[in-house]
Amino acid sequence: MNEEENLKCPKCGAPVSKPDKFCKNCGMDLTKTVQSVQESVPPEAQPLPSQEPYERESSMLERFYKLVTSPREAMRDIALAPDYGGVFVIIVLQIVLSAVSLTFILGKIELTGNSDVAASVRGIVTGAITVAIVIGGVLFFVFWLVKSLIVKYACDSGSGWNFGVAASVTGYAYLADLVFGIIMTAIFLWFMPSVVIDVSNLDAARQAVADFQAQVNWIRLLFSLPFSFVGLLWKSYLGALGTRSGTQERCSVGTGFAVFFVLGLIGWLISSFI
After folding, report:
1. CA atoms of 155 and 241, how far apart (whole Å)
2. Which tens digit of pLDDT belongs to each residue from 112-133?
């Protein structure tokens, strides 16, 4: 049965139709009646306006650029349109940067004395560095996934956001580590001393290694720690912006920042002692 056939004038009961503004029988104003009926319907019973799906605004390279120039806009786009291509690039570049740094440090060490022993020592060190890079790469991926899982639950705030969004936000926040890692590598290239180790003299070799390690520690104390701290602040800020957008603003920037800062600090302490 047509719904319009059941419409009646509330005053005289005469049949009316939806387009009618006045009752043809008694002349009652029907527009006010319709408006009052609509206002009486509870908000939860009213149909929700249709929302178009969010479309990604920036490419991967644009996201990298905006993370530096316009972080709020970039992290909003990342949270609403998550992807993992950019995250993969950041992590791979981090691993490559670590390999370059270790290779550079190895190049600063000159082994003299017995050529056979020197060759063996260099081979062992090169192998150890290769294994360290492989293990470090695997651990980096594991840390990223574990950190993303912690961020998902610590910053949820009842939003019900999924793990994929948290992983994208967390991964893109690692850009801060990459940028400051490049800066630190450049500093090491400039200030790192060279060392000559005579493998034929064990005591002299130990002393040379100890002196070299002391110089490296001073460089880390003067440059690495301050830059690492600033990088941690930047990464925490990026993560906080991303969690706020990803949780539909239910997680505050302060809460997101605290979660990322604590997790980053724990990760930094672990990497310092490994």
Report:
1. 11
2. 877 777 788 778 878 887 888 8
Residue 244 identity (one-letter amino acid) = R
CA gap 25, 205 in Å, rounded? 112
- Write down the domain spans for the chain: 1-32, 80-273
Q: pLDDT, tens digit, for every residue of 197-240? A: 877 778 888 888 888 888 878 877 787 788 888 889 999 999 99
Q: What is the dihedral of CA 130, 135, 138, 143, to 10 degrees?
A: -130
Please state the rounded mean pLDDT for residues 4-22.
71
N-to-C CA span, the chain = 77
Q: Are 172 and 90 in contact (CB under 8 A)?
A: yes
State pTM to two decimals: 0.72
Distance in angstroms (rounded) separating the CA atoms of residues 50 and 104: 57
CB atoms near residue 46 (< 10 Å): 9
Tokens 């910053």 belong to which residue? 155
Chain center to CA of 54: 19
| CA–CA distances in Å: residue 200 to residues 5, 79, 122, 127 | 107, 58, 14, 21
- Looking at the chain, the number of H-run helices and the number of E-run strands are 10, 2
Burial label, 150 (beta-carbon count in 10 A; 0-12, 13-18, 19+): middle
Amino acid letter, 131: V
